[in-house]
What does this fold into?
Amino acid sequence: MAAADFVVVANRLPVDRVEGPDGEEIWRTSPGGLVAALEPMMRREEGAWVGWVGQPDVDLEPFEATGIRLIPVRLSADEVADYYEGFANDTIWPLYHDVIAPPQFHREWWEAYLRVNRRFAEAAADAAAPDGTVWVHDYQLQLVPQMLRDLRPDLTIGYFHHIPFPAHGLYAQLPWRDQVLRGLLGADVIGFQRAQDATYFLTAVRRRLRYEVKGAAIIVPGDEGESRVAVARAFPISIDTEPYLELAARPEIQARAAEIRASLGNPRRILLGVDRLDYTKGIRHRIKAYGELLEDGRLSVEDVTLVQVASPSRERVDAYVHLRDEIELLVARINGDHDTMDHSAIRYLHQGFPREEMVALYLAADVMLVTALRDGMNLVAKEYVATRADNRGVLVLSEFTGAADELRQAVRVNPHDIDGLKDAIMSAIEMPPAEQGRRMRALRRRVLENDVNAWSSSFLAALAEARTR
Ligand code: G6P
It folds into this structure.
């Protein structure tokens, strides 16, 4: 296969397994924002995407789907357990989300992380054309930039970190803290969601490695006295807004929104939460605040329903198993105490839905609740805003999300403050339409201007500039 001038490396390939015309299984690219943003560039530069198909022990040759060359990386069942469920999602994920759940440190998980990162780096090194560009994504692959640079010093390498980077006091807990920093510093540009994440990273580099830092530039010493410059700064990610605008304008989607409302007994207000079922999302805090509002008599189930979509995630990791039990106990208790024959306090859905149904839900929701305890960005907040072309609806947004830096006209909350959260929910429920419109128009301007294309262009421009240094 011809070498590619532009290579994306991410833990997952952007594909879903679907049934073909003769009942056979085929892989089709999934409609993610990242693929949409990179698709034009992938086509132009004959790009390739290196990643895992999401299942253990699947041996697949490189293949093409909708014009993108996909290069599968195989993971054994043990590697899925130690690298993906273990080091990525039970060590790095909780540590980087401010230790909301305790991170587990196991040396054999680290060994698997090293081994699998090396496999991704080798696959990228094989795929990339001379002097090509490689863009590595996210916390599962923090060692890939330096491994790749060692194999292919001719490449320009970018890395984007989709989740938070923690303050130094927390980061310092990681037994392999220096190795991870060196891994990331193999990139020419290291992108973060928030300015704060970049600052924490620069502090860690200064304090742990004692490298010189000038603004966003880091002087990275090489083996033989020479040095290079790596740049670390924020590039807040966004969504591909186009499909949300298009779906929101469709009469059948609007009809579906009305149908959803009717199926809930036409409450005066619908509240909505949409999350992967993850302990970082503050689902428990949100449901607790809502339950207390019912208990206090400030809300009644005739008036208000909370729809909570919690899509299944990382179901073999203990912390996620416990979280599910906790949430489901809480939901059942609140519904048991408050439901009537006609109305339910909480409509809880432990399922994922296609985008069409999500847009209908966003249109039906008077109040969108994003109460994450820590979140790199939170794209659900941006999806809700993009969908509300009618300039109605209120976004309640945790200050601990990356989105809070940009979406200033949301109702801001500290989800740890349950009384504050209750008051914020009430003010959102009671917000007059004119005020809703004023805020939503400003939010929409921001999201439509700074969409995922603007994000990828600005990152790639910074990378192109790095190449000329
Ligand atoms: C977050 C991470 C992504 C990850 C996604 C879903 O958004 O930043 O890298 O792909 O969660 O998690 P999963 O473990 O299913 O890939």
